[in-house]
Amino acid sequence: MAQKVFIDGEAGTTGLQIRDRLIGRKDIELIQIDPARRKDADARREAFAAADVAILCLPDAAAKEAVALAEGLPVRFIDASTAHRVDPAWVFGFAELAPGARDAIAGAKLVSNPGCYSTGAISLLAPLVKAGLVAPDEALSINAVSGYTGGGKELIGEYERGEAPAAFVYALAQKHKHVPEIMKYSGLSAQPVFAPSVGNFAQGMAVQIPLHLNGTRNLPNLRDALASHYEGSRFIAVTDAPARVVPTALNDTNRLEISVHGDAGNGCAVLVAVLDNLGKGASGAAVQNLNIMLGADEGAGL
Ligand SMILES: NC(=O)C1=CN([C@@H]2O[C@H](COP(=O)(O)OP(=O)(O)OC[C@H]3O[C@@H](n4cnc5c(N)ncnc54)[C@H](OP(=O)(O)O)[C@@H]3O)[C@@H](O)[C@H]2O)C=CC1
Ligand SMILES: CC(=O)N[C@@H](CCC(=O)OP(=O)(O)O)C(=O)O
């Protein structure tokens, strides 16, 4: 029998992309509510009551409200917002993070989808902290460039109307919403300096972490630690270092590619993760988590 899935916030950027990935699947029946009633509490509670899994593609406050509305119902949640990512009652939906992560997602009632920048940063840092090549209290910095769809409907509107600049750097006050989850799931005790930016392209991103080489780490052992962590992974791979890293290279896929750049002679390196902010950074990851929760093929629809 088909599993019933309700996408709350279906008309938004993330919701629409999830819908596109699920539509036509025979093992899934999408529950929809009248668009005019999409913010109506009664209509949403009815949808939660009918669903096996609800995927929340909403602002944080509305995601919290959704969970409260469904209190007492057996529905399982995947939350694409930031609202529950460091909440210990929720399982962090990053199947490739560590052994056991996939099983935890499979058995969870509450799964929180990682943020897009976080997916890139954690994919680089968590294996290296675990391998002892990055110290938890190391002074790190993370730079990133994202397509403008990461900013949701509002930023998309600015770009589509031609009102936004070709590129901008932002969130330099060091309070970006992804920092707590990056620290928690990478295993960092010191806050990394984070400098994200947006360019005039719709989707895709590159997350970069500059590192100095030292007596413990060199280019081969950084690469080996990452390659061995992701060995056999369906969606994450370590590649050769391209001369130009193109943020849009993995658009419309659920893939993430890591490359290790640098020069042993001058002791400087840069780790890079490329992903689609709307793919592995949001909707693709949500569908991957849904597949794991339903016991379906993990790559179905991806
Ligand atoms: N864009 C991205 O790259 C990523 C986004 N996310 C997260 O996913 C969530 C959704 O983001 P995104 O899709 O970009 O946002 P959008 O602004 O594109 O879409 C949000 C949708 O939620 C609807 N909505 C708002 N409040 C309510 C409510 N109370 N009840 C029901 N529906 C409501 C909105 O309706 P209306 O149109 O009427 O406002 C809109 O359709 C956010 O938490 C975001 O942080 C996560 C990863 C990546
Ligand atoms: C370009 C842009 O504005 N990006 C967003 C993050 C997008 C995102 O994916 O954030 P969540 O996963 O937490 O929803 C920002 O910096 O706030």
UniProtKB/TrEMBL annotation:
Keywords: Amino-acid biosynthesis, Arginine biosynthesis, Cytoplasm, NADP, Oxidoreductase
Organism taxonomic ancestry: Bacteria, Pseudomonadati, Pseudomonadota, Alphaproteobacteria, Rhodobacterales
GO molecular function: N-acetyl-gamma-glutamyl-phosphate reductase activity
CDD domains per the UniProt record, alphabetical: AGPR_2_C
Function per UniProt: Catalyzes the NADPH-dependent reduction of N-acetyl-5-glutamyl phosphate to yield N-acetyl-L-glutamate 5-semialdehyde.
Domain of life: Bacteria
Family: Belongs to the NAGSA dehydrogenase family. Type 2 subfamily.
Name assigned to this protein: N-acetyl-gamma-glutamyl-phosphate reductase
Catalytic activity: N-acetyl-L-glutamate 5-semialdehyde + phosphate + NADP(+) = N-acetyl-L-glutamyl 5-phosphate + NADPH + H(+)
A Pfam family that the UniProt record links to this protein: Semialdhyde_dhC_1
Pathway assigned in UniProt: Amino-acid biosynthesis; L-arginine biosynthesis; N(2)-acetyl-L-ornithine from L-glutamate: step 3/4
Entry annotation: catalytic residues: C116
Domain annotation Semialdehyde dehydrogenase NAD-binding: ranges: 4-105
PANTHER family: N-ACETYL-GAMMA-GLUTAMYL-PHOSPHATE REDUCTASE, CHLOROPLASTIC-RELATED, N-ACETYL-GAMMA-GLUTAMYL-PHOSPHATE REDUCTASE, CHLOROPLASTIC-RELATED-RELATED
E.C. code: 1.2.1.38
Chief location bin: cytoplasm
Gene behind the chain: argC
InterPro entries named among the record's database cross-references: AGPR, AGPR_AS, AGPR_dimerisation_dom, AGPR_type-2, NAD(P)-bd_dom_sf, Semialdehyde_DH_NAD-bd
Alphabetical list of PROSITE patterns matching this protein: ARGC
Species: Paracoccus broussonetiae
Enzyme class: oxidoreductase
